[in-house]
């Protein structure tokens, strides 16, 4: 299944605008959420084909939210790519253990992101 609809979860409005612009230019339909509560509201409105998840957010962090989404039978089949400034190997391993399908660090390399999205589609 080709990925067309992407949900970006990030508490930074700047990052949301940057990533939305980048992905829309690549032909994706993008929705955004700024926190866990917002993310679940967006998921209920329309199930995305993929989620791009920040880690460092107030309240429930991206690791916790990834775990919650991947354990929910309604959304367990939606692949998640962690997209974060946390660049330690332990962070990557922990993200994958929470259910993420891939992990990319900021600043995002557009080519690398497109390869990862295509691999999931």
Q: Would you mind describing this structure in some detail?
A:
This protein is an alpha/beta fold and 121 residues long. It is built from 5 helices and 5 strands, in the order βαβαβαβαβα. A 5-stranded parallel sheet has the order 2-1-3-4-5, with helices on both faces. The longest helix is centred in the first third of the chain and has 13 residues. The protein is globular and about 30 Å long.
Q: How many separate helices?
A: 5
DSSP strand content: 15-25%
- Main structural class: alpha/beta
Radius of gyration over C-alpha positions, nearest whole angstrom = 13 Å
Distance between the termini: 5 Å
- The best one-word shape is globular
Low-confidence region ranges: none
Q: Which percent bin holds the helix content?
A: 40-55%
Please outline the major beta sheet. 5 strands, parallel
Order of helices and strands: EHEHEHEHEH
Which strands sit side by side, in order, in the main sheet? 2-1-3-4-5
Q: Count the beta strands.
A: 5
Mean pLDDT: 96
Kindly summarize this structure in a few lines.
With 121 residues, the chain is α/β, with parallel strands linked by helices. The protein has helices at residues 13-25, 36-45, 62-70, 89-97, 110-120; strands at 5-9, 29-33, 50-53, 80-84, 102-105.
Could you name the key traits of this structure?
single chain, 5 helices, 43% helix, 5-stranded parallel sheet, 121 residues, alpha/beta
Q: What are the SSEs and their pairings?
A:
Layout lengths: L4 E5 L3 H13 L3 E5 L2 H10 L4 E4 L8 H9 L9 E5 L4 H9 L4 E4 L4 H11 L1
């Amino acid at each position: 299944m080709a990925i067309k609809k992407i949900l970006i979860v990030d508490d930074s409005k700047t990052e949301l605008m940057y990533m939305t612009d980048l992905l829309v230019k690549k032909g994706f339909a993008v929705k955004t959420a700024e926190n866990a509560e917002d993310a679940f509201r967006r998921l209920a409105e329309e199930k995305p084909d993929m989620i791009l998840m920040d880690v460092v957010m107030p309240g429930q962090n991206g690791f916790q939210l990834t775990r919650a989404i991947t354990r929910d039978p309604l959304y367990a089949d939606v692949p998640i790519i962690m997209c974060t400034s946390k660049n330690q190997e332990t962070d990557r391993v922990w993200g994958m253990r929470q259910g993420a399908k891939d992990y990319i660090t900021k600043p995002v390399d557009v080519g690398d992101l497109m390869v990862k999205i295509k691999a999931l589609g």
